[in-house]
Amino acid sequence: MHKVFRSVMVLLEWLLFIAASVIGIANGAVNQYAWERISRINQEGPYLGIVVPNSFEMSPLLQSSSFVPNNKFPYIDFAGRRFRIGRVEDKRVIVVMTGLSMVNAGITTELLLNLFKIKGILHIGIAGNANPELQIGDVTIPQYWAHLGLWNWQRFGDGPNDELALESNGDYTRKIGYLKFSDYNNNTRDDNLLNNVWFQPEEVFPIDGYPEIRQHAFWIPVNDPYFSLAMKLEGMELGGCVNSTCLPRTPKVIRVERGVSANVFVDNAAYRKFLHSNFNVTTIDMESAAVALVCLQQRTPFLTIRALSDLAGGGSSISNEAATFAPLAASNAVEVLLKFISLLNLEIQQICEKLLNLHSFFNLIIIFC
Ligand SMILES: *[C@@H]1O[C@H](CO)[C@@H](O)[C@H](O)[C@H]1NC(C)=O
Ligand SMILES: *[C@@H]1O[C@H](CO)[C@@H](O)[C@H](O)[C@H]1NC(C)=O
Ligand SMILES: *[C@@H]1O[C@H](CO)[C@@H](O)[C@H](O)[C@H]1NC(C)=O
After folding, report:
1. In what residue span(s) does the Nucleoside phosphorylase domain sit (predicted)?
2. What pLDDT is recorded for position 350?
3. Ligand 2 centroid distance, CA of 276 (Å)
4. CA distance linking residue 358 with residue 93, whole number of Å
5. CA distances from 196 to 153, 178, 280 (A)
6. CA within 20 to 30 Å of 351's CA: 199, 242, 254, 276, which one?
7. pLDDT at 5
8. What atom in ligand 2 is closest to the CA of residue 280?
């Protein structure tokens, strides 16, 4: 009887929600009924936010038996995004798909952090590989992320010793290093009209800073405890075959120094080489640095897990490998994510156990355990 009553209540809630949406009952920008549902979801928080670029990268997670949707509020649709509420490895999560590239990743991460009570963000997906020591299928966990899409494109004829436009205002800098196109000329060493690009740090406005007083950020570190914990993932066994074709060696999980993102699909051997030799970059993608920038400004811990699907232009001269290996990479990234979340539980338990052994002074903290 109780079960029937609950089902009726859930049904009524849904009907009310649909009615409210149709009639357009709104209180400011956020529909009042949506707000109420979000508040109730937040009462059960905080959650781990799982941010994924595209549906083929998300579906191995949603299809995994480790993901259990919340039976009352399986999802909330808001601002063109679907926030899926549930549990992974018995830990409360909200999973959201961003769509391709930096603006989508930034908007979605910001919405997730502003609407919901989130204690940390885990970002997963596939990536290009700039590191000759790694292979397709490997899963990378970079320690630093940078957005490489903010450029000051220098006028023709100017070089490393010439000030950039608006540099003296403090808007732009020559500290980070530059890409000189003619360094990559073949045969002729004539300069070319593209000249130089100087990468620029992002302006950031952290929640604990002063509004409108900018700070700058280029290499954004992931969360230290998450990165340390990720060491325990190294040695995991991962899939290495697509149908009956297997990679030369079994893929591995590896923490690397650096990853970069921009609104650019890199399929270019020379640029790949430049990124690796100038910045020690391994992982190249189109979203992680946007997630990193939002998390930096919101002071939210984050980690990125990116599986290598291709060589970013450094491999076969015929075609990019992602067409073949993207599904394998996507499923490897999810495997590593699930393992990480299970370790996260364990780690918290271990910390709690340690605290329990300590003085009762820590009683307050222990409540959280
Ligand atoms: C330079 O050009 C020649 C002739 O087109 C080509 O064979 C060679 O592979 C090129 N070298 C590089 C590094 O691209
Ligand atoms: C480059 O990064 C790798 C890991 O990605 C690290 O082992 C190596 O020490 C780094 N090299 C330098 C020169 O920092
Ligand atoms: C693997 O097999 C599936 C199903 O037969 C097929 O759709 C897919 O194209 C194959 N992938 C490759 C890389 O051959």
Report:
1. 48-161, 261-341
2. 62
3. 10
4. 30
5. 6, 7, 20
6. 254
7. 63
8. 1
What is the predicted pLDDT for the residue at 309?
A: 95
Q: Which residue has its alpha carbon closest to ligand 3 atom 2? A: 243
Which residue reads 């890199």 in tokens? 266
Looking at residue 182, its pLDDT comes to 74
CB-based burial, 150-184: b 16+ in 10 Å, e otherwise: bebebeeeeeeeeebeeeeeeebebebebbbeeee
Number of H helices, E strands in the chain: 9, 20
Contacts of residue 65, defined as CB under 8 A and 6 or more positions apart, other chains included, come to none
Question: For residue 310, how far is its CA from the centre of ligand 3 (angstroms)?
Answer: 17
Phi and psi at residue 362, to the nearest 5°: -85, 10
Expressed in angstroms and rounded, the spacing between residue 316 Cα and the centre of ligand 1 is: 15
Query: What is the distance in A from the centroid of ligand 1 to the CA of 259?
Result: 28
Fold assignment, 47-147+217-368: Rossmann fold (3.40.50)
Whole-number Å distance, alpha carbon 139 to ligand 2 midpoint, is 16
DSSP code of 251? -
The series of mean pLDDT values per 10 residues for the chain, 369 residues long, is 63 64 55 90 96 97 97 94 96 97 98 97 97 96 95 83 89 87 68 71 96 96 97 95 90 98 91 95 98 98 97 83 92 98 75 57 46
Q: DSSP character for 263?
A: S
Closest ligand 3 atom, residue 324 Cα: 13
Atom of ligand 2 nearest to the CA of 282: 5
Mutation test of ligand 1: which of 183, 185, 186, 187 has the most ligand atoms closer than 8 Å to its C-beta?
A: 186
Domain spans in the chain, listed from the N-terminal domain onward: 1-43, 47-147+217-368, 151-200
The secondary element (H helix, E strand) that includes residue 220 is strand 220-221
